[in-house]
């Protein structure tokens, strides 16, 4: 997802780093935390791309971060860039807590002191833990030795772990409900950005396949049925990207305080979720048996899109949120909700 505010040289540098990693990786594509790559990205100022410069960050913005996430998806690199920079370290800075160079993720505990499907908890060094306390929230920067972690994975093998902790053992700094609300929206939008990147790559792969492969003496792209499949992929990917870019622009322009931002994020998540179904189905139909093999890259994008669309809220959850907000707005205020 490229925005005009992103320096092309920065984009090229991101691509070069991830391409080098991919070209040198001859092992299994099962996601593991690559400490060498993380160190390289840290030296380039990319692991805390949006962090404040006075606390060791690079001072960039969400457009640059979106491009970084997109480049990682494009090259099949799976590391907790978003969880570390955009979620965990952001929350520490916003709460006035110190930030060091440790790798981090973030989780929101339920009333029983548990969080499920926590991204990368089993491989990071620290976890920013948030939990409800009466009518407020508390947060603590916990070491992994302070919590109990039960490893798990999502459908593409990325760590999605269960974290259990007694909040009373952590102390904690008060954080506002507004910050926790922003954390939820940022987490959701991160996954929309990643899903869009995966859908765009599935589209690119489909176009390349139908223009290069021949059947009955002519390219697959000359068959009308194939054209319809690819056009549907392109339309759904474009819709998802448009909705996500609209939410991101509103968030950045308003410093995450736009009055209808929750509606825009819900729309982005709904669009990307439903687009993933069409894109995955059509892309595999276009590629045929070749697209189901582990050697072909298509599954890196299609399976990732299906995994990520269900995280930080399922497709049904965001559909319901969107419906509730539209019904609550009523006929008089619905248009202003859609086009604020």
From TrEMBL:
EC class of the enzyme, as a word: oxidoreductase
Pfam family, one: Acyl-CoA_dh_1
Cofactor(s), by name: FAD
Acyl-CoA dehydrogenase/oxidase C-terminal domain ranges (all copies): 192-309
InterPro entries xref list: AcylCo_DH-like_C, AcylCo_DH/oxidase_C, AcylCoA_DH/ox_N_sf, AcylCoA_DH/oxidase_NM_dom_sf
Superkingdom of this protein's organism: Bacteria
GO molecular function, one term: flavin adenine dinucleotide binding
EC number: 1.3.8.1
Keyword annotations: FAD, Flavoprotein, Oxidoreductase
PANTHER family according to UniProt: ACYL-COA DEHYDROGENASE, ACYL-COA DEHYDROGENASE FADE28
Protein family: Belongs to the acyl-CoA dehydrogenase family.
Name of the molecule in the record: Acyl-CoA dehydrogenase, short-chain specific
